[in-house]
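Input record, target 12 of the design panel.
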């Protein structure tokens, strides 16, 4: 299964592509010289996904599943990441899985047992609880 994973819950943008549990490409804006603020995430996420897809010679149609971070974290960041997942799903229905921020130090270390399938994509809405944003109902 070919997977695109991304985390926009903090100031950095993390992206990883997996082919059968093996990370084949990754990007983390924290590793870049530029400071990625929350406002910069929207400028970084889609172009970096496109760049990584080209580098591994995949197309968007090759992606079988998305792993999307559902928080806790920045509302703007979570909303943007979830919106990208929803838009991807509308263009090509794929399985969508969610994971909590901070479960691995680097997104490229994420494993399938750390994610859970989203049964209703519309339920992916960040809400404010306990001084941070997280998935609705958590």
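The sequence produced for target 12 reads:
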């Amino acid at each position: 299964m070919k997977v695109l994973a991304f985390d926009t819950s903090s100031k950095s943008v993390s992206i990883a592509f997996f082919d059968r549990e093996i990370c084949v490409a990754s990007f983390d804006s924290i590793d870049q010289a530029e400071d990625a603020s929350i406002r910069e995430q929207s400028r970084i996420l889609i172009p970096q996904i496109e760049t990584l897809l080209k580098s591994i010679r995949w197309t968007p149609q090759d992606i079988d599943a998305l792993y999307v971070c559902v928080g806790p974290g920045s509302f703007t960041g979570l909303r943007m990441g979830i919106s990208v997942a929803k838009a991807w799903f509308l263009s090509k229905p794929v399985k969508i899985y969610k994971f909590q921020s901070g479960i691995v130090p680097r997104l490229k270390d994420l494993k399938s047992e750390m994610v859970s399938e989203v049964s209703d994509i519309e339920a992916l809405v960040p809400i404010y609880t306990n001084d941070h944003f997280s998935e609705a109902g958590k």
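The mean pLDDT is 84.
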